Amino acid sequence: MSEKTELEIAKQTLKNSKDPAEREKVQQKYDALLEKDIASDKEVIAACSNGNAGSSACASARLKVIASKEGYEDGPYKRL
Predict the structure, then answer these.
(1) Which of 10, 38, 44, 63 is deepest in the core (most CB within 10 A)?
(2) Any idea where the DUF6862 domain is (predicted)?
(3) How high does pLDDT run on average in the chain?
């Protein structure tokens, strides 16, 4: 399951769950996934800024994001 799918599932669980223990656990997972998402954005920005858009580091960082996005778009969440 991709990170984006897990993030969306966690978001839905937080929205719908009435169980405080479950919400706490899911909130921690959601926060960790969100932090990872932000970190990948920062990685792309760092690799591709200052005229480095054509560099191999930029291409590599962008490919990682594309792979994550494809998992999100092809995963079970898309079928909803």
Answers:
(1) 10
(2) 3-73
(3) 83
